[in-house]
Amino acid sequence: MAIEITELQKNELLENFIQHPEFYNPKEFASVRAVIIENYYDDYEILGKISSSNKTRSLLSSSSLWNKIIKAVEEQRFEFRSDEIITDIFFILEQVEKHEDRFITAEVRTASLGFLTYVFGLVDKQVANTGKTNDFVKELNVLFCFFKKVVDGLKIEQVEQTRYQGMFKKVQQMFLFSNNKNASTWFKFYFHFHDKKLSNNNLETGIKTTIATYFKVTNNAKVLKDNIEEIKPVEEFIALEANYENEIYSRAKSDTKYFNEFYEFFNDGKKQSLLESWIPKSADEFKEVLKSSDSDIPNKLKLGNRILQKTKTLSNINEREGFYDSFFVLDLSKDEISQTDFSGQIINIVCSTDVNLHQLGIKQYLENGKYVVTQDLKNKAVPFLFSIITNLNAYHKQFENILNLKIGIYKRQFDKEICDTSNSVEYISNYLIQSGNYNFYTTVISKLLDYTISIINERFITNINNQPKYLEMLKHIDNQSNKNKLPENVLDKLKSLISSGV
User: Fold this and answer.
1) How many CB atoms within 10 Å of residue 219?
2) Is 351 helix (H, G, I), strand (E, B) or coil?
3) Are the beta carbons of 437 and 403 closer than 8 angstroms?
4) Are 297 and 303 in contact (CB under 8 A)?
5) How far apart are CA 459 and CA 27, in angstroms?
6) Sign of the CA dihedral 429, 434, 438, 440?
7) Which one, of 130, 193, 198, lies nearest residue 162 by Cα?
8) What is the phi/psi pair of residue 182, to 5°?
9) CA 24 to chain centre
């Protein structure tokens, strides 16, 4: 007849076995283990104690105990402590995880097929589908470790095929559920069937395609990278299958988040082409991926040339300026920049009738003029000035800005060209009469000799009337040392206009 003992007596006996094993015959421990299997396999306190150390596991645990626990859970005969069954399941898994591999025998592995299928269903329902995955990170890792031990050591007999395939289909179903809603939870479980070849009907053959498709549709690049790194380093993972790398690479060509997370893992050829693939997009997007590359750019000069191919086609000033900014982020040397089209582009837009392009060219020249060939700019700028002098109402800003550049347009030479070019003095005078543009006036006369200035001054004073916009120019003329070269009547009008305040 079995002897009834209290909880206290049970614990005292267990402690005696654990603390003083030398007092007992080794055969007695076999009997104790048998009693535990028979009567205490669902006693949480005993499970915790016998799992706590190598000593207690060696004395009191056994593969038979775990075989019984696993079968009891699968068959729903296990006595759970509360309605929160998942908590008790994780407790059981934590205890079995403490056990050495010798306890996870072939019999235990086979028995675990149904157990794991049952547990996966609970986890999916009570953890993944309730958004609590982050609350159970440690527990899910314990579950994965046990699952991995089971699958890695499995030798499937024909009679167990149905149970194995049931477990596989359960994981696959949860991985694919609702457009991969919970895929981040089940990714490493599903992937672990990769190349196992345990199913006699080749169930696993679709894994590679399914995972590649998942890469194509999942939107959280950071979570995906974390999922992959739980399995192995990203470089090793994407090397497993060309489709894995191709899908991630394809996402990185259109999604900055994928670029940010995965750029570092591609080889130099793919890094270069990936960066270049972002050039057709917006300047801000390109700037972001360039920053994310952290200067890990295989061929900066080639990328710089590709950027400049883009800039010369852009009419949007902000976009063009953004790409010029990115060009200089590359930190190319002066010699390298001389091998690009930068100088030619800036010269062309400085000498543009589009005032916005022109202003961008001036800004770039003022910031990065050391990379522009000055003589080439002068050679293009001077003819450009005389091509627009006939319409200074439209192009006075370009005319003024170019003359203000220090590119070797000297007074004597420019004055000669003004005098030699038909009607140039007249065009300048007429514009000043119409506009009263003081800044334009001071810029132009800084490049002319006194005689030419006197002609312009005379024409200007003779043809204006009383308007406030002229006062600043008139005062400037009055302060010139060569004003006495003006005819008497013109000088009189000058004084009269100034005294009247125009």
Assistant:
1) 11
2) coil
3) no
4) yes
5) 126
6) negative
7) 198
8) -110, 20
9) 65
Please, are residues 350 and 362 in contact by the beta-carbon 8 Å criterion? yes
Q: How many helices (H) and strands (E) does the chain have?
A: 30, 0
Give the tokens for residue 62: 């056994």
Q: What angle do CA 78, 79, 85 make, to 5 degrees?
A: 85
By the 10 Å C-beta count (0-12 exposed, 13-18 middle, 19+ buried), 204 is classed as: middle
The predicted-structure confidence for 213-223, as pLDDT tens digits, reads as follows: 999 999 999 99
What is the pTM for the complete model shown?
Answer: 0.84
Q: How far is CA 324 from CA 11, 306, 346, in A?
A: 78, 12, 10
Rounded to whole angstroms, the Cα distance separating 266 from 230 reads 19
Q: What are the backbone angles phi and psi of residue 398, rounded to the nearest 5°?
A: -60, -45
Would you mind telling me the total number of residues written for the chain in this entry? 502
pLDDT (average), residues 130-146:
94
Cβ atoms of 447 and 406 closer than 8 Å: no
Closest by CA position to 414, among listed 380, 369, 444, 375: 444
Q: Per-residue DSSP letters for 352-390?
A: -SSHHHHHHHHHHHHHHGGGS-HHHHHHHHHHHHHHHGG
Distance CA 90, CA 106 (A): 22
- Extract the tokens encoding 365: 């020249």
Q: pLDDT value at position 17?
A: 66
Amino acid at 253: K
For the chain, how big is the Rg over CA atoms in Å? 42
Q: Which pair of tokens denotes residue 413? A: 């030479």
Phi, psi of 466 (to 5 degrees): -75, 100
pLDDT digits (tens, 9 = 90+) for 236-255: 999 999 999 999 999 999 99
In the numeric block, the tokens 């009263």 are attached to: 436
Which of 170, 168, 174, 173 is CA-nearest to residue 199? 168
Residue 339 CB contacts under 8 Å (≥ 6 apart), including other chains = 301
φ/ψ region of 179 (left if φ > 0, alpha if ψ in -120 to 50, else beta) reads left
Average pLDDT over residues 190-202: 88
pLDDT in tens, 5-54: 566 655 666 676 667 555 456 667 788 889 889 988 999 999 999 999 99
